[in-house]
Amino acid sequence: MIWAVLTITFYSITAYGDKYISARLKCTPGEYTFLVSVVTVFWLVLCLPFTGWRLGMDRYSFFILACLVVWKVLEFYTTAVLLKDMEPYELKAWLGINVILSYGINLWEGKSRFQTGILLLSLCLLLGIWLILTDRRGAAGELKKSMGVCLLYIASKFMYGLQIGRMKPYGNSVSILILVLTAVALIQLPRLPKRKLPAGKEMAGVVLSRLTNAAGLMTEAEAAAANIFFYTLIQPLQLFVLFASCLITRRPMSRRKWAGSILCVAAVLLCSMAVI
What b/e readout covers 237-254, taking b as 16+ CB neighbours within 10 angstroms? Predict the structure, then answer.
């Protein structure tokens, strides 16, 4: 549980860094993916003297690593697209769906028992997400496109968490993450547009935002290995912190979005209390 709490703290700080890179610096998905991968690897390499390098490879672990690279690329691309128009807390609200999926897996594996209350909370969660999504004004085609990108984002996060836990016997989280993110960055090199990347103060903001991300990636890997259900609660629980931040800073918010956010926050928190 401690790994999940630490990850929530680190990622809540990082969420605004993601928004800064995607929307403020107007990075393309390829630029965003390259920047966050390279800078995060930089911070992770600095952790090696403390964590050491431990990684064993065979055919099975190589296959999992390849899958992790795919899921991480998909996660970064969808994040970059969605954050151009969404607030960070809206994106985290969508990840509440993974709570339902992970609970179903725990039921299947016999790690949890069926509770009617969790089923009702899941329905409230879906209703809250729907209220947030339909608050956007736009054509039906744009709504479907947004839903499609959000579902890809959810799938990438869920599958990454599921498979990073299977890599635990083959190495420590820092070694695995360095390998995965290095591969992600190299894949993006041929796809980078021919324009000047952020430098100076802009680049300093990118580097600092990745410090908390590097810390979050390490604790996230530990949380995923310990319990897939707690792992999938990490991102939705950030909704509470990010939503509270929006209220404190008085960001523009319609009544419909406010109601949907309250439903999401309440459903996730009550669901967490029900299973602990």
Answer: bbbbbbbebbeeeeeebe
Whether 112 and 229 have beta carbons less than 8 Å apart is answered as: yes
Beta carbons within 8 Å of 47's beta carbon, 6+ residues apart: 174, 214, 218
Q: Which residues pair with 55 in a beta bridge?
A: 171
Residue pair 222/164 in contact by the 8 Å Cβ criterion: no
Written as tens digits, the pLDDT of the chain (276 aa) is 677 778 878 888 888 888 888 877 878 888 889 888 988 898 889 888 877 888 888 888 899 999 999 999 999 999 888 887 777 777 777 767 777 777 777 787 777 777 788 788 888 888 888 887 777 655 556 667 778 888 898 889 888 888 887 888 888 888 888 999 999 999 988 877 666 666 677 777 788 878 887 777 777 777 777 776 666 667 667 777 788 887 887 777 788 888 888 888 888 777 766 655
171 phi and psi angles, rounded to 5 deg? 170, 175
User: In 3D, which of 224, 225, 248 has the Cα closest to residue 234?
Assistant: 224
pTM equals: 0.77
As a three-state string, the secondary structure of 223-262 is HHHHCHHHHHHHHHHHHHHHHHHHHHCCCCCCHHHHHHHH
Give strand pairing partners of 171.
Answer: 55
Cα-trace Rg, the chain: 18
Please classify residue 26 by burial: count the beta carbons closer than 10 Å to its beta carbon, then call 0-12 exposed, 13-18 middle and 19+ buried: exposed
CB 33 within 8 A of CB 184: yes
Nearest CA-CA partner of 161 in 258, 68, 87? 68
| Residues 226, 97: Cα–Cα separation, whole Å | 20
Residues 6+ apart with CB under 8 A from 248: none
3-state secondary structure of 166: helix
